[in-house]
Write a structure and sequence with these properties.
mainly alpha, 5 helices, elongated
């Protein structure tokens, strides 16, 4: 901004004291101070607005680059999906056309028959039965119901 030193300020103050007079000088100084404050705030607002618009432009450029990258990824996924669909169609057409030869080449799927929800331990059942290890856990209510004495009618 303007380079105003202490000597220049003293010169301006002396000229203002002579021109304005000692009675009006404090009021004029307050008015000049408020006007300078408003001018500084206005300049700061303009700077922040310019910075905000520059950041907005940068964000728009970044958004465009991200959108372009997303479009490229989507296109690559669509091309790979179409290739997969072609391969799948060829594989399934092979099974339907030559079902007899496919069954000879590939064995039919047989479910293992395991209950995957049941958690099994590593200790074999014959070892638990021989050593008297409890194999089934009962809840408290089930235990009471099991060992409750029978009522006689």
């Amino acid at each position: 901004m303007i380079d105003i030193g202490l000597s220049k300020m003293a010169l301006i103050g002396a000229v203002a004291l002579i021109v304005i007079g000692p009675e009006k000088l404090p009021r004029v100084a307050r008015t000049v101070g408020t006007l300078l404050g408003k001018a500084q705030r206005y300049v700061a607002d303009v700077k922040s607005e310019v910075n905000r618009s520059m950041e907005l432009d940068e964000l728009r450029k970044m958004k465009d680059s991200v959108e372009n990258a997303a479009r490229d990824v989507e296109q690559s996924i669509q091309t790979s999906a179409s290739e997969f669909e072609k391969d799948w169609a060829q594989a399934t057409s092979f099974e339907t056309e030559s079902h007899d030869t496919a069954s000879a080449v590939l064995p039919a799927y047989k479910h293992p028959g395991k209950n995957w929800r049941l958690k099994k331990g590593a200790t074999p059942q014959w070892y638990k039965a021989r050593n008297g290890v409890r194999t089934k856990a009962l809840s408290g209510a089930a235990r009471v119901a099991r060992y409750r004495p029978k009522k006689f009618h």
